[in-house]
């Protein structure tokens, strides 16, 4: 499979490769023993990268702290962009563009605006009250 993928890239140099939901591909190798980070580094940096000239775009929904540090080094990462909440005015304009008739009084994510017709349920949390048992180790 890996050779087929490399062959596809060799046959299509100067390509932009988009990897959506890339958490498993870019996760720190200390946490994930997969070879995926090494493969990305080979494609994007070094001799193979010089030949292929592939630009990588990875989207993910986890913290940047989970991304392998080798991918975040200067010279490898061209840009990063975090899609946070839109301000109130931009949220209102986007909501109007979607044809929604809702009151917006706080910054919102694009997903919250696009799905504003869906009922938002708060996750159920349970408070735990109790005692912790201390174990005494005897020498």
| Alpha carbon gap, first and last residue | 56 Å
For the sheet with most strands, the description reads:
2 strands, parallel
Number of beta strands: 2
Which segments are poorly predicted (pLDDT under 50) over 5 or more consecutive residues?
none
The largest beta-sheet arranges its strands as 1-2
Q: Total helix count?
A: 7
Order of helices and strands: HEHHHEHHH
- The rounded Rg comes to 23 Å
Beta-sheet strand percentage? 5-15%
Main structural class = mainly alpha
- The count of domains is 2
Q: Residue share in helices? A: 25-40%
Characterise this structure.
- By secondary structure, the chain is mainly α.
- It folds into two domains: 2-72, no CATH class; 83-118, no CATH class.
- It is 35% helix and 6% strand.
- It has a two-stranded parallel ribbon with strand order 1-2.
- The longest helix has 10 residues, at 2-11.
- The protein is extended.
Short description:
This protein has two domains: 71 residues, no CATH class; 36 residues, no CATH class.
Jot down its keywords:
139 residues, mainly alpha, 2 domains, two-stranded parallel sheet, 7 helices, 2 strands
List the helices and strands and how they pair.
Blueprint: H1 2-11, E1 16-19, H2 23-26, H3 36-44, H4 47-52, E2 55-58, H5 69-72, H6 88-97, H7 110-114
